[in-house]
Amino acid sequence: MNISKDSAVTLSYRITDAATGKPLDGGHVAYLHGGYDNLFPKVEAALEGLAVGQSASVDLAVEDAFGARDEALVRTIPKSEFPPGVKVGGQLQGPGPDGQPQVFHVVKIKGSEVHLDGNHPLAGRALRFDCKVTEVRPASAEEIAHRHVHGGHGHHH
Ligand SMILES: [Zn+2]
Predict the structure, then answer these.
(1) Are 67 and 40 spatial neighbours (Cβ–Cβ below 8 Å)?
(2) For 14, which of 26, 53, 100, 126 could close a Cys bridge (C-beta 3.0–4.6 Å)?
C-alpha cells in the first residue's frame, strides 16, 4: 500500500547537517501519517504516496526543522543551586521565559557556574533528511485516537 492519511509508517532515516554534511542522527522511526505532528510537515509531504522500498530526501531550512535558536533560553546558574548528580550532557527542567516548564541541556560546568541551554540541540541548523520506507500499514483506531503509532519503533505504553 501507499502512504496516505492514517497510515502507520516505519522509516529508516539519517539526518545530516545540510551545511557540513556531518551525520547528526539516524535509526528507525514509526509515525502516524496525516498531519499529527509526528514528523516535520515537509518530510510528510515528500512521503505522501510512497510505498515500501521507496526513498525520499528532503532539504529542511532552519524554519522547516527545529527553528532558530532562542538566546533567551541560554542560562548560567550557580553550581550551588544545581541538583546533585546532573552532568554535562544531562538535562533538567525549570521555568522557561514564559513560566512554562522547559527542558534545559547542561552544556558546560565551569568553576562555580553551570551553563544551560533550553534550545533543541539541532535548533539553528539546516538539515537534510534521507529516509527509506520499510513498512506501511493502516493505523488502528487506537493509534489514530492517540495520534501516534504503537509497537515496533513506535510508542510502548
Ligand atoms: Zn498510544
Answers:
(1) no
(2) 26
Same domain, 24 and 91: no
DSSP-H helix ranges across the chain: 41-47, 141-146
Rounded to the nearest 5°, which phi and psi values hold at 139?
Answer: -70, 150
Coil/strand/helix, residue 143: helix
Q: pTM for the whole thing?
A: 0.81
**Residue 38 falls within a domain, yes or no?**
yes
Q: What is the mean pLDDT of each run of 10 residues along the chain (157 residues)?
A: 98 97 96 96 98 98 96 90 83 85 92 92 96 98 97 92
Alpha-carbon distances, residue 97 vs 18, 66, 94, 103, 109 (angstroms): 30, 18, 10, 12, 22
Tell me whether residue 156 is in a domain: no
* Ligand 1 center to 88 CA (angstroms): 32
Residue 131 lies in a domain: yes
CA distance 141 to 33: 13
Answer yes or no: do 88 and 45 share one domain: no
Phi/psi of residue 13, nearest 5 degrees:
-145, 160
Ligand 1 centre distance from Cα of residue 142 (Å): 7
> What spacing in Å lies between the alpha carbon of 10 and ligand 1's midpoint?
16
